Fold this sequence. Notes:
heterodimer, A: 435 residues, alpha/beta, 6-stranded antiparallel β-sheet, B: 144 residues, alpha+beta, VC0802-like, 7-stranded antiparallel β-sheet
Amino acid sequence: MMFRYWNPHIERMPLPDLQKLQENRLRSVVRFVSAHSAFYRQRFAEAGVAPEDITKLSDVAKLPFTTKLDLRNTYPTGMFCLPGDWIVRYHVSSGTTGKPTVVGYTQGDIDMWTDSLARALTSIGLGRGDVIQVGYGYGLFTGGLGLHYGAEKIGATVLPMGTGNTERQIELMQDLGSTAIACTPSYFLYINEVAQQMGISIREDTKLKAGIFGAEPWSEETRKRIEDATGIKAYDIFGTSEMSGPLFTECHLQNGIHIWADYFLIEVLDPQTGEQVDEGERGELVVTTLDKWAFPLIRYRIGDLTILNTEVCECGRTHPRIMRILGRTDDMLIIRGINVFPSQVESVLLRMPEIGEQYQIIVDRKGPLDVMTVKVEVTEKAFSDKISDLMSLSKRVAKELQKVLNVSAEVELVEQGTIPRSMGKAQRVIDKRKV
Amino acid sequence: MVAIKQISIFVENKPGRMARVAKTLSDAGVNIRALTIAEAGDFGVIRMVVDDTEKGYRVLRERGLTVSETEVLAVELKDVPGGLYEIAKTLGDHEINMDYAYAFVTAKSERAMLILRVDDIKRATQVLQEAGVRIATREEIQRL
């Protein structure tokens, strides 16, 4: 496979030039939002900062944060910075955790989004001649259309499947020779399961070589499972609807997601203090858009937890990388006072070959105590017929979880196929304490 | 080889799970010779000897159940006091461990059979045969 650049001039730009570009664009964005938005003028006034105060990159720290709450309070379009006749498209989040959020795009914003994905898809070796099966939802959700435009831009053939209809996904994957698929990692695992039931091996009977997986946190262990089971390369993709949609992926080296610095300025901050964490430390991702105009973001707190890596990648790209998203600040469960991320549970489970890829975390309250139960499926390989083996398996899982989480969990072994499969974002956590 | 294949199925301890297994076999025309359920809290293991093991195993798997095959011995029990003692003592004397056992009576030949899972099936077969215990073959179980 050949690995190329979509825009070598930008992607390999020397760091001082890239920083200069960011600095210029940051100044423009700050002036722009201040001129066009009452919301930002008020925020800047409250923070005692004027556009003229922003001259160098580090001045970004003077700017006030924005959050999802601001988006909700200004629903539907109170944070837009251009009037409606500039907008060529809306996307709307599902609003499962509250009021939906509306995102608007100018034609230029769509072009930026598309270009960002064109660079990303090229960096994993896709291009003309590839058939990219888009298994993200089309419509108000950004995943389907985002990938669709990016894939067309690089000259690949798009198979616009959307989610669901799993047997048909597999049939067309075979008949039309899909070489890459974009969907949630949990859905791909399910596709593989159904393929096996149909007597089809993704490794032997399809041309699939790459998966572009995201829209839910997933672990390094899941990557290994997917790659071992199907022979494809599994790449992490990142982006949120507020930022446009899916925007960035790892390059073929699979060592962190390249964030295009000419389009986005990112900071990784301590969620409590708002101060920058040391490089290599985990923190909350905060983004400022540098080339997005209908709905720009200034220091928007995405809520995703990650680690920043500013080293130039071996692939030659100079743009900063974020290491795998470790979870979201709002995914975090507090069990008996201890912070637990579903991604931690996943990384423990998928290291154990005896249990399946699907799991569910159920949190409940028994009297004053929080009780966490982790449901896992026993794989056929691990099922030995001896009760004692099964008991020791569930004990071993519980012990490993306790070691990593510092909180005890009950482990429940369940039959294969009984944990609900999802076509989109998997529901891994059921918190009964909230109802 | 006198060892026969037993089918084991992993099931959650929930209403309707046994019915699903039984219906799957019944629809496929597979007849259950002997069956036992071992339960351990949230889950259990159904173990059974059927007339057509290959078919039984296949249809259960196709139904999405977690199934495994285990080699066991089907030993004929004398229907007199001490029948079980003789078998257990022979195995014990030779340091062979019995993991589990379950018995059934055959309708046609009116014989009592004991399904035995041991840690060393080869030696168990040998010492039991030397002690004059009859071990049923796969064909016999099929014909029962």
